[in-house]
Amino acid sequence: MMPHVQLPGHAAGWTSKDRAAVAAGIGDVCRRKGFFFVHNHGIPADLIRNAYVEMQRFYQLPLAEKRKYDATEQSQFLGYRGLGRERSRTHSGTEACEQYRIGNTTDELALPSSVDFYHAHFPKSLELFHHLTHLGDGILAACALDMGLAENFFTGYLDSPLHRLGLNYYGASHPSDVGSTVGYAMSPHIDLSLLTILDQDEPGLEVRDSDREWLEVPTVPGALFVFLADYVQRWSNGLHRAAPHRVSAVRRDRMSIQYKHRPDYGVVVRPLDTLTGPADPPTYAPLNTGPDYVTALRAILGR
Ligand SMILES: O=C(O)CCC(=O)C(=O)O
Ligand SMILES: [Fe+2]
Q1: Residue 162 CB less than 6 A away from ligand 1
Q2: Which has the closest alpha carbon to 119: 173, 58, 180?
Q3: CA 86 – CA 230 distance, rounded (Å)
Q4: Cβ atoms 263, 158 nearer than 8 A
Q5: Sign of the dihedral defined by the CA atoms of residues 40, 45, 49, 51, in that order
């Protein structure tokens, strides 16, 4: 069963009362499942459509043009991840898709040879990014309330947040192009974010429910799909569940937009004292959103 939640309009306009109402609406589902659709989010449908138009245009460019935006250490792994670039974390091959990442860089990782991306191909996607940031902030505040924290608990960790907008393209021929030997286009994983907000133009996303059953996530016009990720699960010592997900082998070209709501560089995420104790010892190790994140990116993208 896919949970569906009605939101009180665009998150930029939410009051404390609205955030409390959202917390009441999602709390149980955050604890049991960690994924849900949101309706009435107030993000203009046009922006989402236009982001797909930009993606379509970009991915049709000649490879040499796309490679000018290659994701490297110099770009802090923002930009283009071509076919065969991202190694799977669960098998010996690569993910069967092309990707593009938009987001801010951090001075902490600036190199003498740094490149900065102006994301010239994606102006509408950038606009969408800002709307999704409001939604991410709003849902996170609701999560905080459900964890018994102040609604602004996470705000102190989001001064120069390294949010990421992922624009993925799964071509029908990509699995054979990369010599895929697995039955899915992206390997099962949980995201390295607080939470992720996703839209897809074709079904393909699957989430693993708490009974370990894989569920196909349908496309629901007007709704966005939200799932909780590593940092919320870790911070809450598992009170809120991160949703494992994967992308099935697609038969038709498919695109997805995933917005990953991420904290500052260098935040240590560890189970909260208020959610641990003799009866609930910490079950997650501390993780640093700076160096540990870079290590994870190098493992899948490093050359
Ligand atoms: O394309 C999708 O639906 C999911 C992609 C994904 O899980 C990711 O990029 O982290
Ligand atoms: Fe993911």
Answers
A1: no
A2: 58
A3: 20
A4: yes
A5: negative
Instruction: Pick the ligand that lies closest to the CA of residue 204.
Output: 1
CATH of the domain at 141: 2.60.120.330
Main-chain dihedrals φ then ψ at residue 268, nearest 5 degrees:
-90, 115
Range of the domain at 39: 4-301
Give, as residue ranges, everything with CB less than 5 Å from ion ligand 2. Answer: 191
Q: How far is the CA of 171 from the centre of ligand 1 (A)?
A: 14
As a whole number of angstroms, the distance between CA 50 and CA 123 comes to: 9
CA-nearest residue for atom 1, ligand 1, is 256
Instruction: Please enumerate in sequence order all residues whose Cβ is within 8 A of that of 291, keeping only pairs 6 or more positions apart, or say none.
Output: 266
Is-above-0.90 flag for pTM? yes
Per-10-residue mean pLDDT of the chain, 303 residues long, equals: 96 98 98 98 98 98 96 94 90 92 94 84 97 98 98 97 97 89 92 98 97 97 98 98 95 95 98 95 98 94 83
d(CA 124, CA 46): 9
For the stretch 79-88, contacts whose Cβ atoms lie closer than 8 Å and that sit 24 or more positions apart, written own/partner, are: 79/117, 81/301, 83/171, 83/174, 83/177, 83/178, 84/177, 84/178, 85/301, 86/300, 86/301, 87/299, 87/300, 87/301, 88/182, 88/187, 88/300
Calculate how far, in angstroms, residue 247's C-alpha sits from the geometric centre of ligand 1: 7
State if residue 75 touches ligand 1 by the CB under 6 angstroms criterion: no
Provide the domain count of the chain. 1
Q: How far is the CA of 115 from the centre of ligand 1 (A)?
A: 25
Neighbouring C-beta atoms of residue 98, cutoff 10 Å = 24
ipTM given for this complex? 0.99
With contact defined as beta carbons under 8 Å apart, do 138 and 16 qualify?
A: no
Ligand 1 centre distance from Cα of residue 173 (Å): 18
Residue 205 in contact with ligand 1 by CB distance below 6 A: yes
Tokens 């697995």 correspond to 182
